[in-house]
Write a structure and sequence with these properties.
alpha+beta, 5-stranded antiparallel β-sheet, 9 helices, about 20% strand, elongated, SH3 type barrels, Alpha-Beta Plaits
Length: about 300
């Protein structure tokens, strides 16, 4: 006897632990092999980059949770004995790793509620970019804006903690409705034919967006099933305003979030080219009128000396 345990009991216990260890190793190796095979199939079958990346992440996460479940089943009895110790250690880690745990919970929330997905253009706190990866602790963005105008990429990769989903506002540019409203303001002189200028701007905008109308209306109908969204004007419209230096015409139109700068540039060039062909349309610019006030000369305060 060795204390309260016999030699046979000790050997049996050791043998059981070795068996469970081997089973655990087999489960991990099998999961790695299965993940490798599934990812190879995904890479061959799915050509589009975004769906392929989503499928690979889904495989990895699913197998990860299955491995955790199987390991818990294998070691369940041993876990009963160390449950109290794990609880104490877990409480200490929860305090020390609070931000990490919040990011982990944020990851679960993102997977379940889907405030954004891979491929979406979002603004999270003061960060803006296209989502290229969602991991356990952070979301990876391809940054847009900052020192670059018109929401174009800066080329930088930004890692945003998933905890930001709970502490900051999240704006999604593309979820459900991948179009955003854009505006191009143009100011022409008071003497210009502003009605003609307005019609020119509308014609050019309709040419650029005529193919989008069926898709836009279908998406609006789809979104209205879940949200109280109602747009009176979906097609381009020009608003008129009297400005200090002329008549301001503001063209309002829809464009895909990732195509905003290209569409704005194409419309601006088309409008300028059309205005150049019209003699009664001229662009205005800030002007100042200086008015001179003529003042009377002061009378001489000194008298001329008397002649001797």
């Amino acid at each position: 006897m060795f204390g309260s345990f016999s030699l046979s009991e000790i050997l049996t216990q050791r043998q059981g632990q070795i068996t469970k260890g081997l089973l655990s190793l087999a489960v991990v190796l099998l999961a790695i092999l299965l993940a490798w095979l599934l990812i190879r199939v995904i890479n061959r079958r799915i050509e589009d980059l975004t769906p392929r990346h989503r499928a690979r992440r889904a495989v990895v996460y699913t197998l990860f949770f299955l491995v955790l479940l199987l390991l818990a089943i294998i070691w369940f009895k041993e876990l009963e004995f160390i449950g109290v110790a794990i609880g104490i250690i877990g409480a200490g880690m929860a305090l020390a790793l609070q931000s990490v745990l919040i990011s982990f919970v944020g990851w679960i929330y993102i997977l379940l509620r889907r405030p954004y997905r891979i491929g979406d253009r979002i603004e999270l706190g003061n960060l803006r970019g296209d989502v290229i990866d969602i991991r356990v602790l952070h979301t990876t963005l391809l940054e847009i804006g900052n020192w670059v105008d018109a929401d174009q990429s800066t080329g930088r990769i930004v890692f945003a903690p998933n905890s930001l989903i709970f502490t900051d506002k999240t704006y999604n540019y593309t979820q459900g409705f991948p179009f955003i409203w854009c505006e191009i303001p143009v100011t022409i002189t008071f003497e210009s034919n502003w009605q003609k200028a307005k019609e020119i701007m509308l014609v050019q905008a309709r040419k650029e967006g005529e193919e989008l109308e069926p898709e836009v209306r279908a998406l609006i109908r789809k979104m209205s099933r879940n949200y109280p969204i109602r747009y009176r004007h979906l097609m381009p419209i020009v608003y008129t305003r009297i400005a200090a230096s002329g008549v301001q015409l503001t063209l309002r139109f829809l464009a895909q979030a990732q195509e905003r700068r290209r569409v704005e540039s194409a419309l601006a060039e088309a409008i300028l080219s059309s205005f150049d062909q019209e003699r009664d349309i001229a662009l205005a610019y800030p002007t100042q009128r200086i008015v001179g006030i003529k003042t009377e000369s002061k009378t001489q305060s000194e008298t001329h000396p008397k002649e001797q």
